[in-house]
Amino acid sequence: MKGDILIHGLGVAGATLAYLTSKLGFRVVGLDVAPYYRKACGDVVTLRSYTWELLRATGSILTFARRFEVRVGGVEVAYLNLGPVWAVVDKPKLVNTLRSMAEAEGAKIVKGKGAPEAGSDGVVVDARGPYAHNLNESVLTVRFIAKARWDDDSALIDFDPANLGLYWVFPLGDGRINMGAGFKKVEDGGLLKALTLKYYRRLTGENAQVLDVRGAPVAVEAPVKLVEDGVYKVGEAAGLVNSTSGEGNRYAIHSAIALARAISKGRGVKGYKELLQGVLDEITLSRLLLKLVEKLGPKTSTKLLESLPQEFWAYYFKGRLTRRTLLRVLRSNLNILLPTV
Ligand SMILES: Cc1cc2nc3c(=O)[nH]c(=O)nc-3n(C[C@H](O)[C@H](O)[C@H](O)COP(=O)(O)OP(=O)(O)OC[C@H]3O[C@@H](n4cnc5c(N)ncnc54)[C@H](O)[C@@H]3O)c2cc1C
Hints:
This protein is an alpha/beta fold and 341 residues long. The protein has helices at residues 12-23, 49-58, 91-104, 189-204, 249-264, 268-275, 277-307, 310-318, 323-332; strands at 4-8, 27-32, 44-46, 61-72, 75-89, 108-111, 123-126, 139-147, 154-160, 165-173, 176-183, 209-218, 227-228, 231-233. The longest helix is centred in the last third of the chain and has 31 residues, at 277-307. The chain is globular, with a radius of gyration of 20 Å. The protein starts with a strand and ends in a 9-residue tail after the last helix. It binds flavin-adenine dinucleotide (FAD).
């Protein structure tokens, strides 16, 4: 045995970490308040070789999103056919299977609520997702699963710059959709549900046949910290969530892989940070973009969003929007800046 690892929270990040580290020969204990994971999500995971591997191993892929429509205030501004860029997953199956796979490798999974604290020996990890943070650093989000006539490969995102957030409609396969919304300026869950249902009616002319509804916070403004007071952090507990899209699943998986690697190679915090540099850059950029939209106000940021070229949206959906790619897009589309400055 290689040493002890105590993981608080067994969502995407914690369950992945528990599986990987127990497989590497560590003595792992994983603690979660919920014996069965069923947290609300848009159920989309951006494809990379490492996410693909994990999704396949857990048999959790339902369909793929290939076509993407972007709207701003209900008006279409871009439409892209990008091929299978997102896997749409059965997320409870993904997380609960990872927990079982960790147990099969010798990890001990226990039900319980804890506040992670560094001990004298062993590694302690905070993987409590948005619940590791003060809720005023999060945006409340609701998602509906509904029956609908919807293309099984089409995803829609509609930005609302006035409320600082977005509506989404994603395919779920089998004649179902996953739709929802989250706005920095709408804190009331009841209002958020009503707005989402109204949005769907406006979009399709039909009432949604709702099968399930759930809400959860997304920590879009939480500080990014990979370690604090000797406790490692992964996933949303580390602040790894994209402020402009709400994407967090890929980062949760990536951070768990990076931490497992850093621990097993004895590379500590420095190694962990190095392995996550790309993700950290993406998230810093998303925080800057959210601040920019907030600062510009709804009218100007609507104009800006409307004028962004297809190339920008391709990077956005592929999860490849970095400072470098953004500069490239801006340089070859200098006219974007003209109406706004
Ligand atoms: C409505 C909604 C839609 C979203 N859509 C998408 C999407 O389509 N694509 C995407 O990439 N991301 C999406 N996200 C974000 C994504 O769900 C999260 O970023 C991701 O789940 C983070 O994984 P995690 O493991 O860090 O945290 P979580 O998955 O939240 O897991 C945290 C775990 O910690 C446990 N826990 C909490 N407190 C304690 C405690 N005190 N002690 C022990 N255990 C505790 C919880 O029970 C849970 O199992 C969405 C989020 C929401 C809310």
